[in-house]
Sequence to fold (181 residues):
Amino acid sequence: MSRIGQKPVPIVSGTKVSIADRVVDVEGPKGKLSYEHRPEVTVSVNDETNAVIVERSGNERSSREFHGLTRALIANMVEGVTKGYEKKLEIVGVGYIAAIQGDVLQLRVGYANELHCKIPKTLNVTCPDQTHIVVQGCDKQQVGQFAAEVRSLRKPEPYKGKGIRYEGEQVKIKPGKSATK
Fold:
């Protein structure tokens, strides 16, 4: 039995959830999100309890798998349009800087050329200073994906720790070859 799938998703005030065919639309103060769920599950809105209920059609493995997944995705959508999601990145290294020019994130992270990342229209990316990047948006997947793509441009290296990392991320520093002597 899916324990996560059985829990109803509470609809926060100021959020509107509508279901047409297999498409779930969630609209709130931060934006609007849409998701087409699998045919193995059915999604309905209970007006009495003001919650979204996800039920599965059968007891086969795929139905059980998509039961919890669908409920979790809808819960993330409701949270995203009410509170939003945020990822913070920090840049460590001498001369490593970030700046935003229009809808392009410009990074100087130790390569011969400056790196450019196009910012998606649905995300809000800011640089409070030259060594920090803040990615905000209502779609959890998009926020995490863009932050991961920026981080992958210059991952933290293990000897000095230089590169782009998530805020608070611990980088394990290896001893150099002089430590063996």
